[in-house]
Structure formats: structure tokens, C-alpha cells
Amino acid sequence: MTILINKQVLLILNLNINYLYLFLLNFKSTHYRLFFGFILLINSGLFVYLIINILK
Q1: Is residue 1's pLDDT more than 60?
Q2: DSSP one-letter code for 28
Q3: What's the structural domain count of the chain?
Q4: b/e map of 20-40 (b: 16 or more CB within 10 Å)?
Q5: To 5 degrees, how large is the angle CA 11–CA 3–CA 17?
Q6: Contact residues for 54 (Cβ-Cβ < 8 A; gap 6+)
Q7: Mind listing the pLDDT tens digit for each residue in 7-47?
Q8: Closest C-alpha among 56, 55, 54 to residue 3
Q9: pLDDT greater than 60 at residue 50
Q10: Distance CA 8, CA 1 (A)
Q11: In terms of residue numbers, what domain contains 47?
Q12: Global pTM?
């Protein structure tokens, strides 16, 4: 179970890095900036949620 959770955390962290890269790549476009910013915010929330659950 711990291994599974660690894989999920690594996956979400990897998604955060990918979205951050796309966010910076599309920084000139306001539409993409808002869209990827929103996705990044959701993924960051999930990442924090998983960390809190692991620490419990």
C-alpha cells in the first residue's frame, strides 16, 4: 500500500512539473496561462492532500 501511495505521489509530482513546463511555455497566451494555472492548482491540491493522508 505504501509503495502504491509513493507511486501516486511521484506521478502527481511529475504531472505538476509537466504542467508547470507547459504553463511557462504558453506564458504569452492569456487563455493557456489561465487554463494551465488552473490545472496546476488542482494538481497541487491533490499532491498536498496525498501528503496529509500519508502523514496521518
Answers
A1: no
A2: T
A3: 1
A4: eeebeeeeeeeeeeeebeebb
A5: 15
A6: 5, 9
A7: 777 777 777 777 777 767 666 666 666 776 777 777 777 77
A8: 54
A9: yes
A10: 11
A11: 2-55
A12: 0.34
